[in-house]
Design a protein that fits this description.
This protein is α+β, with helices and mostly antiparallel strands and 203 residues long. It is built from eight helices and six strands, in the order H-E-E-E-E-H-E-H-E-H-H-H-H-H. Helix 6 runs antiparallel to helix 7 and helix 6 runs parallel beside helix 8 (184-202).
Amino acid sequence: MEHLQPFFAAEGYQFHPILNQYRQPFEGGFRNVILGFSEYENTTLVECTFGVRLDLIEEAIMPFSSGINGYLDESNTTQTNLAKYYQIPHYRLRFAGPPEMEQAGRELCHFFTQEGFAFLERYSALETLEARYNQAPHQPSLLAFSTRMRSFRGMALATLAQSPHWEKLHRAYEEELRRWGTPTVIMDRYEALCQHLLQLGLN
C-alpha cells in the first residue's frame, strides 16, 4: 500500500519498510501503525495493528521479561488491532484487485483521521494509558494481547504513574498469571520485577 505513504507522512508517520510499519516518534517513545498482508485464495487480507511505545516502561520490564533483548528498541507498550477496536472477531481489510485495494486504503485513512490518530495520541500519555490499561486486570484489555506482558507492563505503568492501587494490581495480575498456568520461572520474574518496581517507587 505504497499510496498510503503520503497520508501517513502528512501526520508525521514515516514508513519503515523492514518493519512494515508507519512510525511517529515523540519524546520518550513512538506511535506506530503496522500492516500485515496475507493471501487467501484470490483475496489479500490486511491486518492493521497499532499502538504506542513508552521507552521508560519497556526499559523497566526488559531485564525481567522473557522478551529478546535485541528487540528492545522495537517493542510496543500497548498494541491493538482493528478487530479488537471494532469488537468484530477476525476483522480484516481485504481486496482482490486495484479498485478494492484503493477502497481498503480509503477505509484505513478514514479510520485514522476520525479515530485512530487521536486514540494513539491519547494513550501516549503515561497517566491516561495507566488508567485504561489497569482498569480491569481480570478482564481482556483493548490495549494488550498477551496476559504475561500485560502484567509486567501494567505494574511498570502503575509504578511510574504512582497509582494508589499498586498493591491491588500486584495481586490481581499475579492471580491472572496463575489462572493462565504461567510457568514458575515467569512467576519468579514477575515477582522480581515487582520488588524492583517497589524499590523504584520508594526512591
